[in-house]
Write a structure and sequence with these properties.
alpha+beta, Butyryl-CoA Dehydrogenase, subunit A, domain 3, Heat Shock Protein 90, five-stranded mixed β-sheet
Length: 414
């Protein structure tokens, strides 16, 4: 009986908090919040309302997933973690914000939530893999529904970890580099982060293939006598170094692997070319390789979850141990990190030659606003099982037959 009442109460609270939209923050607001020595009390008051809203918005979407996916043990495990974290935060809903003991307990709760959710990406990926193997052919529009959900689910996770980690760095017991403001470095050196990402990707590549291409890296920024004080090529910006590193490390891993595999019979490997450019609105990093590119028919799949041009690891346990082979999560999650603060990540690939990977990030912190999923009628309709009728003709294969249609030789009636 007590468990039933608890579940009913949680459902009511999910409905209540799910009606609110998350509060969108900019990097500028994160920085100002940390610089002005805003009290732990104010941060506590904000988070005890904001975190339940973000949790409720994505938990409501989990309930819209196909039943077969919801029933997967891995997905149920993740859903249980989110429910516990939702309850943990709501425990402080009416607590005295001026009580030091309350603030300490809140920090402990956030630390537990952060630890509880540390394997969410892998666990949800395992659930999706299991479900695809069992029910991919019987669930309508499965690929589109899962891709839509995972983009929103993982982006929501990035945002909540940002809020929690930022609070703990500012007001908890976690060590924080002196010049950093929580997770943010106001003088993030893009070249330095890129070199670190390349060095670590090169180490893995050499370990795996016994070879790795060099990285020809350069910076460029138009000289502006009004804003620039010197002619140095050093490019700095206000950003989260860990996010930038994650994106560049993933792109370098892909580039190095592609080059080594494409030129493995040649006496030398062509360099990877990296350009870092600071423009009027964006800092753009372009990583160019001569790794053979990707056929145009596969280019759209590069950001699909579970798709990878690398050979699959031999077992699910290899997800944390195989250095360069993938489960197809590196690129889509890297793009989410870029999009989180109003940036982007995309690929231009030339089949038979190579690929240009581009990351674009906002120069000004006031323009770098969070991108957050919002649960509403529009989002709920995207989980519908119905598939819209195609309003374009389908490609024809080499036999003159339409792909995916066994009866393509038959006339079509309307």
């Amino acid at each position: 009986m007590r468990l039933t009442l608890l579940l009913l109460n949680r459902a009511k609270l999910l409905d209540y908090y799910g009606r609110f939209h998350p509060s969108v923050l900019t990097i500028q607001q994160f920085i100002e919040f940390g610089q002005k020595n805003v009290s732990a009390k104010n941060s506590f008051v904000f988070l005890r309302k904001e975190l339940p809203v973000r949790l409720a918005n994505i938990m409501k979407e989990i309930q819209l997933l196909p039943e077969q996916l919801q029933n997967m043990p891995s997905v149920q495990l993740v859903e249980g973690w989110y429910a516990r974290s939702f309850d943990d935060i709501l425990h402080f809903e009416k607590s005295d914000a001026s009580n030091e003991t309350t603030l300490k307990k809140f920090n402990d709760a956030l630390d537990s939530i952060q630890d509880r959710h540390k394997t969410v990406v892998e666990t949800m990926a395992q659930g999706v893999m299991e479900m695809k193997n069992e029910a991919a052919d019987v669930i309508p529009n499965l690929e589109g529904r899962i891709h839509y959900f995972l983009d929103r689910f993982y982006l929501s996770r990035i945002s909540m970890r940002m809020l929690i980690h930022q609070h703990l760095l500012l007001y908890g017991d976690m060590d924080n580099p002196s010049r950093h403001i929580g997770c943010f470095d106001p003088s993030c050196d893009v070249l330095s982060v890129a070199n670190d990402a390349y060095d670590n990707a090169r180490f893995l590549c050499e370990q795996y293939y016994n070879a790795a291409p060099k990285n020809d890296i350069r910076c460029h920024k138009p000289y502006d006598p009004v804003t620039e004080t010197d002619h140095s090529d050093r490019i700095v910006m206000t950003y989260v170094p860990a996010h930038l590193y994650y994106m560049l490390f993933e792109l370098y891993k892909n580039a190095l692997r592609a080059v080594v595999e494409y030129h493995h019979n040649e006496p030398s490997l062509p360099d990877v070319q990296t350009l870092i450019c600071k423009g009027r609105e964006d800092v753009t990093i372009k990583i160019s390789d001569q790794g053979g590119g990707v056929p145009r028919s596969d280019a759209d799949k590069l950001f699909h979850y579970m798709y990878s041009t690398a050979p699959k690891p031999p077992s699910p346990d290899a997800i944390l141990t195989t250095p360069l082979a993938g489960y197809g999560y590196g690129l889509p999650i890297s793009r989410l990190y870029a999009k989180y603060f109003n940036g982007d990540l995309w690929l231009n690939t030339v089949d038979g030659h190579g690929t240009d990977a581009m990351v674009s990030l906002k120069v000004f912190p006031k323009d770098a606003s969070e991108l957050l999923p919002v649960y509403n009628k529009t989002s709920s309709q995207r989980y519908a099982a119905t598939v819209q009728a195609k309003d374009w003709s389908e490609p024809v294969d080499g036999l003159g037959l339409h792909r995916n249609r066994v009866d393509s030789f038959k006339p079509t009636c309307h």
